[in-house]
Amino acid sequence: MRTTLFALAAASLFAGAVQAAPATYAIDPTHTFATFEIDHFGASTNRARFDKKSGSVEFDKTAKTGKVQIELDMTSVNSGTAPFNKHLQSADIFNVEKFPTAKFVSDKFVFEGDKLKEVTGKLTLLDQTHPITIKSNKFTCYESPMLQKREVCGGDFEATIDRTQWGVNYGIPYGFPKNVRLVLQIEAVKQ
Fold first, then answer.
1. Which residue of 12, 22, 74, 167 has the fewest C-beta atoms within 10 A of its own C-beta?
2. How many CB atoms sit inside 10 A of residue 17's CB?
3. What is the rounded CA–CA span in Å between residue 100 and residue 38?
4. What CATH architecture is 20-190?
5. Where does the pLDDT of residue 21 fall: very low under 50, low under 70, confident under 90, or very high at 90 and above?
């Protein structure tokens, strides 16, 4: 009986040691890009990105779970054209004077087998929070030879949102679409 109890206790300790704990990763701003695209009268596509971003990822490879928090500095919106940047920053669109940041928070990673399929969470923009699902186009973890073999995880993601849910209504009467495509490239370094 005593041997059985000892064996069970040892097995329990061993099982706990084998389970991987979630690891924390810091967003690498030099390899992370958040851009958006919106149709321009069916003739072209307007695009812009946010140059300043920060955040963290908590990821447990074994359990296939994770958490994400990414913050965008809305004042850093960059379309490549200064007058358009000013309009994007204005009260017509992002109202950066009143709402200088946007945030995406998620605590649900959805896997199909070993492949990350999507990340669901909530986007806060203009002080309004609504759920979004971000599709994973590719995702992997690797040892970076540039960072003394530290682990980096990242991938390409995208989502299409109805901007009017967040109160971004500019141009609707002129025929601008409600739908905006978000394109995200994210890499995060294990801490």
1. 12
2. 7
3. 21
4. Beta Barrel (2.40)
5. confident
Bridge partner residues of 38 (DSSP): 46
- Token pair of 169 as six digits: 């209504």
Hey, what are 39's tokens? 């149709």
Is residue 77 pLDDT above 80, yes or no?
yes
Q: CA–CA separation, 56 vs 29, rounded Å? A: 11
Q: Where are the domains of the chain?
A: 20-190
- Contact (Cβ atoms closer than 8 angstroms) between residue 27 and residue 173: no
CA 168 to chain centre: 20
CA-to-CA distance for 51 and 29, rounded, in angstroms?
Answer: 8
Determine the residue type at 135: K
User: In angstroms, rounded to a whole number, what is the distance separating the alpha carbons of residues 89 and 84?
Assistant: 9
**Beta strand residue intervals within 51-162, DSSP E:** 53-60, 65-73, 77-78, 101-112, 115-125, 128-144, 150-162
Taking Cα atoms as reference points, which of 56, 190, 64, 55 lies closest to residue 116? 64
CB 137 within 8 A of CB 154: no
pTM of the model: 0.86
Question: Hey, CA dihedral for 102, 108, 111, 114, is it positive or negative?
Answer: positive
